[in-house]
Every structure is written in structure tokens, then in C-alpha cells.
Design goal:
Blueprint lengths: L2 E2 L2 E2 L2 H59 L7 H6 L1
Antiparallel strand pairs: 1-2
Length: 83
């Protein structure tokens, strides 16, 4: 038994305090993990959204290129490097 200010703690009180501390630590850890997961999900959604935007831009650029000069042949690599 522990004495604090003349009060003796019983085994039940000590056990209750241990359980309470364990639950508090678990809740705190769960909160930290939830924050990490939330940030990760947000970052993934942002990355996927950015990728989708790039795909739309590529599609639009391809469409415009086809409209502007779809009948012109694609130059060879050597021809492109000479320019």
C-alpha cells in the first residue's frame, strides 16, 4: 500500500488508477493514429485529384493537337532533334 498525505491506497484503488491510465493512454494513441490516417487519406485524395486534373489536361491537349494538325505525319526522333 502507498501512503500519500497520510491516506493509504487500497489494492482496488491502485488497480482502478492503473486501468484508468491504461484507457487514457489507449485513447490518446487511438486519437493520434486517427489523425495520421485522416491526413493520409486527405493527401491521397489530393494526389488522385491532381492526377485526374492532369489526365483531363492531357486529353484536352491531345484533342486540340488532333484538330490543329491531325493530317500531318509525326516527325521521326532524328527530325525532332535536328530542329
Amino acid at each position: 500500500m502507498t501512503e500519500e498525505n497520510g491516506h493509504k491506497f487500497s489494492g482496488v484503488e491502485i488497480g482502478k488508477d492503473a486501468v484508468q491510465s491504461t484507457i487514457e493512454a489507449a485513447a490518446s494513441t487511438a486519437g493520434e493514429v486517427a489523425s495520421i490516417v485522416t491526413r493520409a487519406v486527405r493527401d491521397i485524395a489530393t494526389a488522385i485529384g491532381g492526377f485526374a486534373t492532369e489526365l483531363f489536361e492531357i486529353q484536352e491537349a491531345s484533342r486540340k493537337a488532333a484538330e490543329d494538325g491531325g493530317d500531318r505525319p509525326i516527325p521521326s526522333i532524328e527530325e525532332q532533334l535536328d530542329e
